[in-house]
Each structure stands twice: as structure tokens, then as C-alpha cells.
Recover the amino acids of this structure.
């Protein structure tokens, strides 16, 4: 399975929804709080070109925002 990294903040409701969705489908992911980690924030902006969260890195493919359809397709989650 592809490595999943979630760039997020604690105050972002879309981030919470995304992480809950991944947990519901038993998808292991690295949760990176960019409000606490300047280096990770810079990495996220470099990869996505965006300051907004969440940003999901699934095996090197970047998704900005919680796009359930794109996340499901990349992770082969059947709805």
C-alpha cells in the first residue's frame, strides 16, 4: 500500500473528517501538524503550492483538501 501522509492542523474540521475517514477504512497514515512544524509546512507548500490544509500525500500524489473520491480512488477504497 502507498505511504499516506496528512498535512493538517488541529483546528481544521476538514482535516478531522479526512483522518476519521482514513481510520474508518483502516488506512495507516502519518499525521503532520503544520501549525507546530515549520519544516513540514514548507514541505507541504513546496509539494502542493498551497497554504491551505488538509494536503494529502499518497505515494507521492498530492491531493489538496478532503476530496473523498480522489482519496478513495488512490487508496482503492470501495464505498
Amino acid at each position: 500500500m502507498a505511504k499516506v501522509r496528512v498535512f493538517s492542523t488541529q483546528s481544521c474540521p476538514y482535516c478531522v473528517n479526512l483522518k476519521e475517514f482514513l481510520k474508518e477504512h483502516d488506512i495507516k497514515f502519518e499525521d503532520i501538524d503544520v501549525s507546530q512544524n515549520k519544516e513540514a509546512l514548507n514541505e507541504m507548500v513546496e509539494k502542493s503550492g498551497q497554504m491551505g490544509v488538509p494536503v494529502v500525500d499518497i505515494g507521492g500524489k498530492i491531493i489538496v483538501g478532503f476530496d473523498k473520491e480522489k482519496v478513495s480512488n488512490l487508496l482503492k477504497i470501495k464505498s
The mean pLDDT is 95. The chain has one domain: 4-75. The domain at 4-75 is CATH 3.40.30.10 (Glutaredoxin). Residues 6 and 31 are 5 Å apart (CA to CA).
